[in-house]
Amino acid sequence: MASPTEPSAPRVLLTVDVEDWNQLLDRRVGIERPPSTAFRAQMRTLFGVLDELGANATFFVLGTTAADHPHLVAEIGERGHEIACHGYSHERVYQQAPTQFRADVERSLRIIEQVASVRPRGYRAPIFSINRDSLWAYEILEELDFKYDASRCSSPWVPNAISPPAVAPYRIGLRGGRELWELPVASCAVARHSLPLGGASYWRFLPSGLHLRLLRNGVQPYHLLYVHPYECDPEPLRANLPSTSTRAEVRSARRRECWRNFRHETILARLQAIGEHFEFTTCSDALAILASTPQADVRPPIDVDPARPAVAV
User: Fold this and answer.
1) Which one of 120, 224, 249, 294 has the lowest number of neighbouring Cβ atoms within 10 Å?
2) Residue 5 placed within a domain
3) For residues 221 and 258, is the Cβ–Cβ distance under 8 A?
4) Radius of gyration of the chain (CA)
5) pLDDT single digits (tens) 147-165
6) For residue 254, what are the domain limits?
7) Are 95 and 57 within 8 A, CB to CB?
């Protein structure tokens, strides 16, 4: 793993949301099946690409995935990558009560520590779901001894999102002078909107040359990118729902299948192209540099937006 010293070449934080797409799809329709072989193949493909690039990444591991694939999760750490936490059940944070959220994260931590013998330092909310209604999550994460969160993303799927969009890492000021680092997903302003450059789901809609140019010209000192193992599968995703599924469930699964398969074959090539122009690093290695930077912003959990009332934490 690269030493956490100030880089001479542009660096990006490469992160992976470790979740089994077929498992999550099954649970949407209330069925439980053995762990999919597709997920294991996807992880092998991703490991191979990172080996070719000589790159390390931060893997945000879902607790259910760690329970089903303990040896793969242990291998993440054995390969020199950072293991972080993605919660247990992949439930949106803003749909949970604080006690439910704490229990979900603690359950994930126990499993990860059991299978990988490591205590994660970082957390990412499923579907980037910390919003203005769930700012209490930052307090809980700090109480659980997390050092950073990586849940800020200019995603259109997050209702009542925290605004304005974050453009660089910063420290969240909490009660009693406590702090938690926030490492937001790379984005850029387009007219009055913010485009998430960091998400592999969005790479499919950006020409490679434009994407690389936007990353090079961005103002963020550390661009953060994320991919999923299923986005690295050279084969099209298949829902494979059981025959007992309803028509509505099948239609929903087919829509998800079509969305995820659209130009998905371009994602691995894009990841390799970024790796040829930038140096990949982990969140913890970047944090070691950022933490020694006194001019880093310290912000409250939410910036006051004149168009909205302030939200108490």
Assistant:
1) 294
2) no
3) no
4) 19
5) 999 999 988 888 999 987 7
6) 11-299
7) no
Q: In this predicted model, what pLDDT tens digit does every residue of 171-206 receive, in sequence order?
A: 999 999 999 999 999 988 776 777 778 988 888 888
Say if strands 170-173 and 298-299 run parallel, antiparallel, or are unpaired.
parallel
Task: Judge whether 255 lies within some domain.
Answer: yes
Short-list 9, 8, 12, CA closest to 203:
12
**Structural domain total, the chain:** 1
How far apart CA 253 and CA 243 sit, in angstroms, is 13
Per the CB < 8 A criterion, the answer to whether 83 and 120 are in contact is: yes
Residues 6+ away with beta carbon under 8 Å from 76: 18, 59, 61, 83, 116
Place of tokens 């001479």: 8
What is the tens place of the pLDDT at every residue in 20-33? 988 887 777 777 77
Q: Which amino acid is at 219?
A: V
- More confident position, 188 or 128: 128
Domain-located, residue 312? no
Distance in angstroms (rounded) separating the CA atoms of residues 76 and 221: 26
CATH number, residue 162? 3.20.20.370
Whether residue 198 is contained in a domain is answered as yes
Q: What is the token pair recorded at 192?
A: 């009055």
Peptide bond into 164 cis (omega under 30): yes
